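To: structure desk
From: M.T.
Subject: fold request, one chain
Message: Could you run this one when you get a chance? Sequence is below, nothing fancy, just the single chain.
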Amino acid sequence: MSNKVWFITGASKGFGRIWAEAALKRGDKVAATARKTDTLKELADEYGELVFPLQLDVTNRAEAFDTIKKAHEHFNHLDVVINNAGYGQFGMIEELSEQEVREQIETNVFGALWVTQAALPIMREQKSGHILQVSSIGGIVAFQNIGLYNASKWALEGFTNALSQEVSDFGIHVTLIEPGGFDTDWSGSSAKHAKPILAYDKIREERKKMRGAMKQGNPEATANAILKVVDANKPPLRIFLGEQPIQWAKDEYKKRVENWEQWQSISAEAQGN
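Reply: Done. Structure tokens follow.
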């Protein structure tokens, strides 16, 4: 199951760093990317030739293709691609600036798309490979104050679901990783915040209390889970990380079905025949 070649974006910290180290500890090779390669120095110093540090701004399509090419030429194979690079944009929908919206989508959606497109020709030629997209419970459930983050992850889920159907005949697996709340820097220095509008302060405070009451998972504990997903003969299209997301998902889909059923007579009327 080992001796795989990984390509991980956003490998300098958080989940990306943890999963890179998990792969390296068992002897796999990792092309580790970050906006600045000096943030990968400790990783490279500890694991030597098993690590290939690469600079990558995932929003740059040409750079994504070039970086994947370099990784493939260096290790002569590409088994696992993890699109982990991304961040959380906080702000009520009304508060968000055009630049904030565009940057969130550029990184969380287009960034994953460009890397995926770059990896696919290699994996098709190999007739093997596994692409993992780091989504979120926020990719299926929406929350106040992170609506654009939700939008970015819903978009990621949409194109990845279609992708899984398109590439299965080529021996390529696709998995959406959907973490719940974890004790990472996601809502800290990595996050961006829109200029607040006073009218939303009450909602913002309620949301803050709700997040504070959530049980946070241990990021280090996700390493073994990722290894098991990567090593599975038939990996899942979707998998939650953490105990809580499954109940949130059940509650969400229950409400959706109830809503659709309540309005089904009007939906049928719209059929027109």
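Reply (cont.): DSSP finds nine helices and nine strands in the chain. Let me know if you need anything else for the meeting.
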